[in-house]
Amino acid sequence: SPRRVLYAVAWTLVFCFAVAELGLVSQQLHRGGNDIENYGNMMFKHILGILLFSIILVFLMCIGHFYAPLGLMAFFVLSAAVFWGVGAGVTFQSCPYRVFNCGDSDPQITFAGTRWAEERFFSQCSRIVAIQGLAWAEWGLLVMMFFGMIGHLFKFVVRPGTTFYGPMV
């Protein structure tokens, strides 16, 4: 059935996005270590931890979705979507890098007065933008999956002749 195919494609995409994000986040964590001086700011360091948790949660969901009831998976998909949304939003907020400014010739002008202008951080611009993009993609996919699961769990019907102010005459 089309529903089975859509679920299979969605879970495959969720897994693939998480694997790609794991590579990028773990590279940033290994590169920076535990020292806050190795990160652009403290918020960015901590959001990498939340993204790592989100990745692990998605891996556990991918393993368990075969055996869990749909209602329970809808709850976990919503929870994961919240974590991914927070991770993507805070990454976007904590870091000034965007896809259009990674190729700037002089980061000292674009990011003047911030630690992000330093070459050791600016050299990671494309990776950080990829982290943001994958996190937003995972969030969007999980939100769509959640609404698909809700539509699968509950039957929504239109009641004819219903208005806000009573029956239509």
In words, what does this structure look like?
It is a single chain. The chain has helices at residues 2-32, 42-64, 70-94, 107-110, 119-122, 125-153. The longest helix is centred in the N-terminal third of the chain and has 31 residues, at 2-32. The radius of gyration is 21 Å and the shape is elongated. The chain starts with a helix and ends in a 16-residue tail after the last helix. The chain is built from six helices and no strands. The mean pLDDT is 91. α2 (42-64) packs antiparallel against α3.
- Please state the average pLDDT score: 91
Cα end-to-end separation: 42 Å
Helix and strand pattern: HHHHHH
Distinct helical segment count: 6
How many discrete domains? 1
Assess the beta-strand content as a share of residues: under 5%
The dominant shape is: elongated
| Structural class by secondary-structure content | mainly alpha
Low-pLDDT regions: none
State the total count of DSSP E strands. 0
Brief descriptors of the model:
elongated, 0% strand, single chain, 6 helices, mainly alpha, 169 residues
Summarize the structure.
This protein is 69% helix and 0% strand.
